Amino acid sequence: MSNEQHREQVKAERHQQRQQKVKEAVDAKVAAATDERGVLMVITGNGKGKSTAGFGTVARAVGHGKKAAVVQFIKGGWDCGERNLLQQAGVPFVVMNTGFTWATQNREQDIAACEQTWEPAEKILADPGIDLVLLDELTYMVAYHYLDLDRVLTALKNRPAHQHVVITGRGCHRAIIELADTVSEVQSVKHAFEAGVKAQAGFDY
């Protein structure tokens, strides 16, 4: 065996040893994770893709035959590709059709629309027949004080034990983050919109 071959063999053996340690650590964590219950997940941050990630989780649940429901805040009444697809799969949607707050510029109207959207959301969060709930852009409703924080926390805490919930939106309130089991933050590095590229069907919505 040449010196070069020996060095390559040593590198391969060291790599295998490192990977074995990684595998053992992962296997230990998997073995220790025995609790099975509903998970509260928050996807926040200023980057693009939070709602997309939430809808991906809904699609995953539906693919496994689970029952899911979606509540959309501030998205408005325009066409939504995920809604078009998932409604065909039997996923119910509750949509706050007022659009973004800077479009309506009417706080009382927005609060009323939020209330009309949150009431069915509370019923969904209390329904043991729903396995997964996506509360898309809920964070804004709390940040703008359209929804009472304690009311939201109570609904989340009192939901059925097996029910998963995904909350999306920027600036998630600290109390919701503390309650959550999993929190992911999407950071923006660059965005096509800042370069003058408009939102496009099939990619942005």
Automatic annotation (TrEMBL):
User: What would be one Pfam family of this protein?
Assistant: CobA_CobO_BtuR
What's this protein's name?
Answer: Corrinoid adenosyltransferase
**UniProt keyword annotation of Membrane present:** no
Give me the reactions it catalyses: 2 cob(II)alamin + reduced [electron-transfer flavoprotein] + 2 ATP = 2 adenosylcob(III)alamin + 2 triphosphate + oxidized [electron-transfer flavoprotein] + 3 H(+); 2 cob(II)yrinate a,c diamide + reduced [electron-transfer flavoprotein] + 2 ATP = 2 adenosylcob(III)yrinate a,c-diamide + 2 triphosphate + oxidized [electron-transfer flavoprotein] + 3 H(+)
Q: Which GO terms describe its molecular function?
A: corrinoid adenosyltransferase activity
The UniProt record lists the EC number as: 2.5.1.17
Q: What class of enzyme is it?
A: transferase
This protein's pathway reads: Cofactor biosynthesis; adenosylcobalamin biosynthesis; adenosylcobalamin from cob(II)yrinate a,c-diamide: step 2/7
Native organism is Oceanimonas smirnovii
Its gene is cobO
Which family does the UniProt entry place this protein in? Belongs to the Cob(I)alamin adenosyltransferase family.
**Where found in the cell?**
Cytoplasm
Region of interest: Disordered: 1-21
At the highest ranks, the source species' classification is: Bacteria, Pseudomonadati, Pseudomonadota, Gammaproteobacteria, Aeromonadales
Keyword vocabulary terms for this entry: ATP-binding, Cobalamin biosynthesis, Cytoplasm, Nucleotide-binding, Porphyrin biosynthesis, Transferase
The entry's function note states:
Required for both de novo synthesis of the corrin ring for the assimilation of exogenous corrinoids. Participates in the adenosylation of a variety of incomplete and complete corrinoids.
PANTHER family found in the cross-reference section? CORRINOID ADENOSYLTRANSFERASE
